[in-house]
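User: Please predict the structure of the protein below. I'd like the answer in structure-token form so I can feed it into my own downstream comparison script.

Assistant: Understood. Taking the following sequence of 304 residues as input:
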Amino acid sequence: MTRRVVVLHGGISAEREVSLATGAQVIPALREAGFDVTPVEVTRDLAALVAALQAAKPDAVFNALHGRFGEDGCIQGLLDWLELPYTHSGVRASAMAMDKAAAKAVFAAAGLPLAQHRIVTAAELEAADPLPRPYVVKPVNEGSSVGVDILKDGDNRRGEIARRWSFGPQIMAEEFIPGRELTVTVMGDEPLAVTEIGTGHAFYDYDAKYADGGSQHCIPAVVPEEIAQEAMRIACRAHEALGCRGVSRADLRYDDTTGRIVLLEVNTQPGMTRTSLVPEQAAYRGIDFSALCAWMVQEARHGP
């Protein structure tokens, strides 16, 4: 029976603070559930991480890392090498979901509805609009809305955004879908609920996600029943198409003037902070935070 659990938090990505916040919630929740928990704060010292894991001899690892090297298959590969079961998705699903271009190719092959999009370089973005306005530019391999901007008619920031781009050689340009932000948690193979996210920000950005009062969550979302069912179907199909396991969260846009609903992306390591959506949807279904974390640990495994 799983008793000893290492919680990995921190990391070296732009989402380090989010990961630390997730760890701060998960560690006491797992202790409340009866696990012997060893927190390990991850830094650039990979040898120290391996040594800490070997010293702790855990039955499972709760991966509370976010962003690059934490949810892109890198840490998953290390844990597979050490033959340690871990929460969330394996190497392949993690890597594909984190790479927005690869994920969209998988979603398209699965017949899921997507916004028009293309990959460009910073030089190409500086030279011309890659899509009709309005459109979104975002990093290919970051999460938590890091580096995301919307370019609308009359906005002259395109050249500036391109020149200061620091998120790798590729930029994803994506059609801006007006309307409402929806999200669906998939737990195992079951959708939990549909939440509508309201925010006074231009979009659901980093501050809206993590600052107190940055967003308002309506659960269940007040949308037509057929839209709610379609959102849950899309989320489950996307989870399955990527090969996710444990918990994932699909983000969607719903244009209530046209009825169009599109999948934006799937997060294989959703935040577990006190303002996060997954714990909120689990609570709506009668699953408290400690039970949710315990379930994730019991479902931990290594391999694809």
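That's the full token string. The first helix runs from residue 16 to 32.
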